[in-house]
TrEMBL record:
Domain Histidine kinase: 171-397
Domain PAC, first and last residues per copy: 99-151
Signal peptide: none
Annotated PROSITE patterns: HIS_KIN, PAC
Name by which UniProt lists this protein: histidine kinase
Catalytic activity: ATP + protein L-histidine = ADP + protein N-phospho-L-histidine
UniProt KW keywords: Kinase, Transferase
EC number: 2.7.13.3
Length: 413
């Protein structure tokens, strides 16, 4: 009796049908797809998992189906793989197994399923090849986990790069700021002389110098904040009192064409943060809202309490902890953000505005600040309908705000 070499396939008695040799009940409940073909390459049986991967359940009672129940096969790189030229056909010719083969099953609806195939030839007791068995593992979940891992790795590398940039750039920007301070002081000393001179041309040139100096100074201050080189003192903050205290500044900043409203919850909790940086974050968001409404619109600054967990808050960052949060929200009725731009808005120096209108660091600094305060940030936007930016901070204590004068009270959300 001829015997096939060990490890090259399964040897089965040839006095029972092929399906019974493998054991139909065994493969029926396996968590991987399993199917068998005879020596002619015709599909003889398959389990429910194989049908789920294929996206269809072939009718074996009709014309013979060769090699697989899949609509189409592709190689790992996406190239179409005709059945007659596939590894399935190769096993029947070589009589050797093929293991850990990555392929793609393309379904009839065009969707694709990455799989890991292990094709084993089947032999009778006399050594004659009687078919093959293929087990196919669905790799969709594995691919998603791999992609998520790559995203995390890339994010970590980017964070490490930005940390190094911050360390090196912080010292440079400090020196840069010192020189700007000297320049600004010199301009202040020159201002009276230029005014007394009465030359309109000289005054116009001075105004350009002052505007350029102020803009570069703001950029340097933004870089210092981004580099995290300044000490950050945390304090207990009433969000309602903070917004009301900034109301005049905010209304002056947005101008008369924009209807500015404050919608503050009477039971808003306190939060713990650096007041200067929180005010800077709010001004950044207000400026973005103003620029998104050149023709006018409505700006609403609101506060409320909410409970967050992983099921109802999908935008959380790595330091997220479920619990009670107080929210400061800045919403506008402006032009909105295009979907393709929305995923990039927190990238350093990314901006959809003209280069002379934005440093591209505003939202980057806002997210960095909120993350430092153990908070969360969420942005929703629809083109031509507006944008809403919500800053979530863990509630600090159980005391409620009393600063609701002049605001519209509203219930907790």
């Amino acid at each position: 009796m001829a015997e096939n070499p060990p490890g090259t396939g399964l040897r089965l008695p040839d006095d029972v049908p092929l399906v019974r040799k493998i054991g139909h009940e065994l493969i029926e409940f396996l968590p991987v797809g399993v199917y068998l073909c005879n020596a002619a390459g015709h599909l003889t049986t398959y389990n429910p998992k194989a049908a789920e991967i294929w996206g269809e359940a072939p009718d074996l009672g009709k014309e013979p189906i060769r090699y697989t129940g899949a609509y189409r096969l592709r190689s790992e790189n996406g190239a179409h793989m005709p059945f007659e030229q596939s590894p399935l056909a190769a096993v029947l010719l070589s009589k050797k197994p093929i293991t850990n083969l990555r392929m793609i099953v393309e379904r009839r609806d065009g969707s694709q399923v990455p799989i890991l195939a292990n094709i084993v030839p089947l032999f009778g007791m006399d050594g004659t090849m009687i078919g093959f068995m293929n087990s196919i593992q669905d790799l969709r979940q594995h691919a998603a986990q791999e992609q998520a891992q790559n995203h995390l790795q890339n994010a970590l590398m980017q964070a490490q790069k930005m940390e190094q940039i911050g360390k090196v750039g912080g010292g440079v920007v400090h020196e840069f700021t010192n020189q700007l301070t000297s320049l600004s002081m010199s301009l202040s000393l020159m201002e009276r002389e230029i005014t007394d001179n009465g030359s309109e041309q000289l005054q116009a040139r001075f105004a350009l110098c002052r505007e350029a100096t102020d803009q570069v100074t703001r950029l340097a201050e933004g870089l210092l904040l981004f580099a995290r080189t300044r000490p950050r003192v945390l304090e207990r903050i009433d969000p309602n009192q903070l917004l009301l205290g900034m109301s005049t500044l905010i209304r002056n900043d947005v101008g008369q064409k924009i209807d500015c409203q404050f919608d503050l919850a009477s039971d808003s909790n306190f939060l713990r943060a650096n007041r200067q940086l929180l005010e800077s974050a709010i001004i950044n968001l207000v400026a973005n809202a103003r620029d998104a409404m050149p023709g006018g619109g409505q700006l609403i600054l609101s506060t409320f309490n909410t409970l967050l967990d992983r099921s109802n808050f999908m935008h959380h960052n790595a330091n997220f902890k479920p619990g009670r949060y107080v929210v400061i929200r800045v919403a506008d009725t402006g032009t909105g953000i295009a979907p393709e731009a929305l995923e990039h808005i927190f990238a350093p120096f990314y901006t959809t505005r003209a280069a002379n209108k934005s440093t591209g660091l505003g939202l980057t600094m806002v997210r960095s600040f909120v993350t430092d305060m153990n908070g969360q940030l969420a942005v929703t936007s629809r083109q031509s309908q507006g944008t809403s930016v919500s800053l979530y901070f863990p509630c600090y204590g159980s005391e409620h705000s009393l600063a609701i004068t002049g605001s519209e009270q509203k219930p907790e959300r």
